[in-house]
Specification:
This protein is mostly helical. It is 70% helix and 0% strand. The chain is globular, with a radius of gyration of 16 Å.
Length: 174
């Protein structure tokens, strides 16, 4: 199963605040490659809680995930969601850790919380699709991928998954 994790540490801080509305417009533009910069801008904005301490908890959780230490990751990310309940990246990243630990119910709940906080969180929608596919709910998975593609039509993982599920649901999967 593929799980998307928005890496908070992969992006350098921009010199000025990001205009998310403009970034989402550029992300949805089918022309050119400007969507790649917009995607990076959005992920960078989402990775910032506004608190250095909370950003540190996110990084520690991501680092533990990278090492495969799911208990440590879930611990750091649970502390993050407890102390910064309005920070969508904390919920989305904890969902990834929970799913990797096989805890799909709580992971899906965390993604639902992510999407309440940021309804355009395409990574969470794609992650939700992957989880629903993993637990054999292809119709719901396809719906999640389609919603994600409405926001970010360039996601290759979501494009491939939606095509695969459409074939499966039509009965034409090879």
């Amino acid at each position: 199963m593929t799980i998307l994790i928005v890496a908070a540490t992969a992006f350098a801080a921009p010199a000025q605040p990001i205009d998310l509305e403009d970034a989402f417009r550029r992300l949805a533009n089918p022309e050119g490659e400007g969507w790649r910069i917009a995607e990076s801008d959005i992920l960078r904005a989402w990775s910032r809680s506004g608190s250095p301490a909370m950003d540190l908890l996110l990084r520690r959780g991501e680092d533990a995930l990278d090492r495969g230490d799911l208990d440590e990751a879930i611990g750091h990310l649970s502390a993050l969601t407890d102390h910064a309940p309005d920070f969508a990246a904390g919920w989305q990243t904890r969902a990834a850790a929970l799913a990797m630990a096989g805890q799909f119910g709580p992971a899906i709940e965390d993604l639902a919380r992510t999407l309440v906080l940021e309804p355009r969180h395409f990574a969470a929608m794609t992650q939700l699709g992957a989880m629903l596919e993993e637990i054999d709910q292809p119709e719901r998975a396809l719906a999640a991928y389609r919603e994600s593609l409405k926001v970010h039509p360039h996601q290759q993982e979501a494009l491939d998954a939606a095509a695969r599920l459409e074939r499966r649901l039509r009965g034409t999967d090879i």
